[in-house]
Model the fold of this input.
Amino acid sequence: MGGLSAAADLSRAGLDVTVVERAASVGGKMRRVESGGLAIDAGPTVFTMRWIFDGLFGDAGQRLEDHIGLIPAETLARHAWQPDRSGRGGNLDLFADVNRSAEAIGDFAGAAEARAYLDFCARSADIYRTLAASFIAAERPSIPGLVARLGPFGIPALMRTVPMRTLWGALGDHFKDQRLRQLFGRYSTYVGASPWAAPATLMLIAHVEQEGVWLVRGGIHEVARAIAGLAERQGARFRFGAQMDRIVVEAGRVTGVELAGGERLPADAVVFNGDISALTDEVRPVPATPPNKRSLSAVTWCMAAQTSGFDLAHHNVFFAENYAAEFKAIFKNRSITETPTVYLCAQDRGEGSNHPAGAPERLLALINAPADGDRGPLPDHVMADLAHRSVGLMQDCGLELTATDDPVVTDPAGFHALFPASGGALYGRANHGMMGSFARAGARGKVPGLYLAGGSVHPGPGIPMATMSGRIAAARLLADFAGDRRTVMLPAG
Ligand SMILES: Cc1cc2nc3c(=O)[nH]c(=O)nc-3n(C[C@H](O)[C@H](O)[C@H](O)COP(=O)(O)OP(=O)(O)OC[C@H]3O[C@@H](n4cnc5c(N)ncnc54)[C@H](O)[C@@H]3O)c2cc1C
Done:
């Protein structure tokens, strides 16, 4: 997304742009695979922060809705809990309408928790409003820079974003019901972090979802295709199956890239969209991410399947009982707990769907995993066991599922192979601790002419953030070439 949005902005500015992509098509993590004769989205599924995409297309004189079919989701996600030892489990939907969610929470966990939810919403909205423009859209934020940008009330506003506390800890201010703490703690996994180590600032993700989650007609991969189309119409060229092996530096500045096989492509500037750890020390402005600082990886199963017994929404989460054990296993023991929580995206469900009942449907199942893919694949018996336990958890919640063909399975080693030097980490460096958000590189590389975009640099992972990073990189590049050294800030919403 970072590379594509940079290509769109740079080609619009009249630059001669070539996109060098090692895969056979665009999308990167937003890839699409095939199982049972169906094309299944194998990466991101939750589309938020539409304003970033409206901005990208709008600046090119186009309307997003003319290129991507977006349907607002009324149900944000369906959550199910495995019955625990006391027999307590249950299902809870969250809705785009906050009051409807509060009502559902009231029915699920009582009136006090419904009131707590409304307080939590107000707090997450406040954090979001403080940081949307000052942090997300800035070139490379620092704490003094943030305070300056926030004006006279900068310090109190920043303190209210609670960077010193963990997300899990701060959620305890609001919710007594551990299931709700689990539900909202899970938002840290959207950036590959543990709720027990991520700053409470990530509460803002709850607000991002309340501002709108959209389903993409034809699947989310269409977003990547649409941005590539925009860039192409403005003159950008795409080379697929082209592996960039080296960024060429001569006389202290970037002069192009070298492809596998030795071909050199001369360039005045390069925007790099791979994982930052793939760069050499010569050009990387921050250290490579050590394995113990990597964000989450995952094991994913993409399949065509017949389902029954549980009314699936588009986004479904099946929570295992011991959430703390999952993150301890991943970040401390570098393993996967016995029964991990399962996210299931039922891609034919949700608003605007006309999927015939009983027909095989497209599913993506995902569990979190440590990003140790560079140590080799998970053994077959471990993968079989994980599949068995994940299906067992969903069965405990009522879902029966029969795949109609072999699923396409990707483990951390698979992600590492797709995204070089990542170890399979899907979100760059883990956003852990108060300074985690400031540890990412900004838009400039270490040598003139190199720019950085993507989920491993500022403002971080997720489709909208990575898209924003590409726009920031393009703006920095254009400003540098125009001799303007001022900090780049994009309009935020
Ligand atoms: C399973 C999964 C679920 C996710 N869920 C969500 C979600 O629901 N919502 C959300 O917002 N985000 C989600 N994300 C995160 C989101 O997909 C990413 O943050 C975002 O798509 C990353 O974009 P990027 O710009 O970093 O580029 P990437 O997607 O990492 O793409 C980089 C591209 O560069 C290419 N490349 C790398 N190195 C080279 C090289 N040397 N030569 C040539 N080409 C190269 C790669 O092939 C790839 O196409 C998810 C990710 C995954 C994998």
Remarks:
- Residues 1-493 form a domain with the FAD/NAD(P)-binding domain fold (CATH 3.50.50.60).
- The mean pLDDT is 94.
